[in-house]
């Protein structure tokens, strides 16, 4: 009896181990059957049907803004600045007075030339009277023909002197007008380089102020000569059709799109030898002066139309290690095929595919990562996800919930650590009592 009691726990443990092994084997068999069943079922994928269409070849090029008109205002008369007649940074109109220069010297010159003009006029009048008298006397031979000819010549010389005096007076009046420096164009003023009391000279090197016209405004775009050659070669070979669309879209430095479309003004006829690029210029309306000279921008220009092209979402196209573009398509047997394709840019976040696809090809867009060459699939029309905000919010909610749970766990742990202490002492005391009780019968038996 004692031997049977000793071996009873061992037999129970062996029986439990055998039972667990049998259960594990049955679970492995069920998982293997489930995997085989999953492999036997075709993988569902979302596809789009390739349809050829004419696509605008939009080229994105970098550029910088520049003022439509720019004028560096310099004085045309020498003197001391008496006043500055505008506010720095303000908008001025053409002809508006900007500076007032001391004009006393120029005004004295005008008075001097006015006197010279009057003197020449008086001399001419006297000579004309003399010439009139000689004309009457020469008919009666009272004066010689030579004297009359000299009187006529003197009148003509006096007329020339009067004309010269009037020209000098006009020049002096122009210089007097230069004493007031006026705006040659309408636009935005910059910082004034001089103040009242400064001495300036005619045609000096440093401008008094710079005026820029900002509405409209230019955007100077640079395109590499290699891209220009490819464009012209494509037009020559018929791969591109010539586009009459001269509209230009602009993306600003912060990634936003400028709300007003511009027009392509001209393309330079020469290549910059230092940069190897050609400059294109676009004109944009700038009523709110959002664009300022010198800003960096990206211009999207339509340079031709690609006929019989296919638009493929970016997620459906991958690159091989050698850089070739490829897409996954579903053939007539619902098996996956890999196609090497050629692209010619992007349009609305989709690749423009020019070669490698045929009309009616089923391009895999959803589930590309789950399939491979030759695998059986179950194609269905691809449905783009219209609202991607909810999954993000759900994920954020799960993350915040996990974070909240994680934050609550430390509060729960101290309670679990402090409460079990009496229980552990009680548990430790209970076996001691049981040992004492078991020892007492043993002593009584002995």
TrEMBL record:
It is a lipid-anchor. Keywords: Signal. Gene3D superfamilies: 2.40.30.170, 2.40.420.20, 2.40.50.100, Helix hairpin bin (1.10.287.470). The keyword Lyase does not apply. Residues 374-446 are annotated as: Disordered. Residues 392-408 have a biased composition (Low complexity). The keyword RNA-binding does not apply. GO terms for biological process: response to antibiotic. It is found in: Cell inner membrane. Residues 216-301 form the Multidrug resistance protein MdtA-like beta-barrel domain. Its main location: membrane. Residues 308-368 form the Multidrug resistance protein MdtA-like C-terminal permuted SH3 domain. Residues 111-179 form the Multidrug resistance protein MdtA-like alpha-helical hairpin domain. One of its GO terms (cellular component) is plasma membrane. Residues 70-211 form the Multidrug resistance protein MdtA-like barrel-sandwich hybrid domain. Pfam families: Beta-barrel_RND, BSH_RND, HH_MFP_RND, RND-MFP_C. Residues 413-446 have a biased composition (Polar residues). Residues 1-21 form the signal peptide. Belongs to the membrane fusion protein (MFP) (TC 8.A.1) family. This is Membrane fusion protein, multidrug efflux system. It comes from Acinetobacter marinus.
């Amino acid at each position: 009896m004692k031997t049977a009691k000793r071996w009873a726990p061992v037999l129970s443990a062996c029986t439990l181990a055998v039972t667990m092994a049998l259960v594990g084997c049955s679970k492995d068999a069920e998982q293997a059957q489930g995997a085989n069943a999953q492999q036997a079922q075709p993988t569902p994928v979302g596809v789009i049907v390739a349809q050829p269409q004419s696509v605008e070849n939009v080229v994105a090029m970098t550029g910088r803004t520049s003022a439509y008109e720019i004028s560096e205002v310099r004085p045309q008369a020498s003197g001391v600045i008496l006043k500055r007649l505008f506010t720095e940074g303000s908008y001025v109109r053409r002809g508006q007075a900007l500076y007032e220069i001391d004009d006393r010297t120029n005004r004295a010159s005008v008075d001097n030339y006015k006197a010279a003009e009057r003197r020449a006029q008086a001399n001419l009048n006297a000579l004309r009277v003399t010439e009139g008298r000689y004309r009457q006397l020469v008919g009666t031979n009272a004066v010689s023909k030579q004297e009359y000819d000299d009187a006529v010549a003197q009148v003509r010389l006096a007329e020339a002197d009067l004309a010269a005096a009037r020209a000098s007076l006009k020049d002096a009046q122009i210089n007097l007008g230069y004493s007031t420096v006026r705006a040659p164009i309408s636009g935005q003023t910059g910082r004034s380089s001089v103040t009242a009391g400064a001495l300036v000279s005619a045609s000096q090197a440093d401008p008094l102020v710079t005026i820029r016209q900002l509405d409209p405004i230019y955007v100077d775009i640079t395109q590499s000569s290699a891209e220009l050659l490819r464009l012209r070669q494509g037009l020559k070979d018929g791969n591109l059709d010539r586009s009459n669309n001269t509209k230009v879209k602009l993306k600003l430095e912060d990634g936003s799109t400028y709300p007003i479309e511009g027009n392509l003004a001209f393309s330079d006829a020469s290549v910059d030898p230092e940069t190897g690029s050609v400059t294109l210029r676009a004109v944009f309306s700038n009523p709110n002066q959002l664009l300022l000279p010198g800003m960096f921008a990206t211009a999207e220009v339509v340079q031709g139309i690609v006929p019989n092209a296919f638009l493929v979402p970016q997620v459906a196209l991958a690159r091989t290690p050698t850089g070739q573009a490829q897409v996954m398509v579903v053939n007539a047997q619902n098996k996956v095929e890999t196609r090497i394709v050629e692209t010619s840019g992007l349009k609305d976040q989709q690749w423009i595919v020019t070669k490698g696809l045929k009309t009616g090809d089923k391009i895999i867009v959803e589930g590309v990562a789950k399939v491979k060459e030759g695998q059986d699939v179950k194609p269905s029309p691809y449905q783009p996800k219209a609202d991607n905000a909810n999954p993000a919010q759900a994920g954020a909610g799960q993350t915040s919930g996990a974070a909240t749970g994680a934050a609550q766990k430390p509060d729960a742990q101290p309670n679990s650590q402090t409460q079990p202490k009496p229980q552990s002492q009680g548990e430790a005391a209970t076996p001691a009592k049981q040992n004492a009780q078991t020892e007492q019968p043993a002593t009584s038996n002995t």
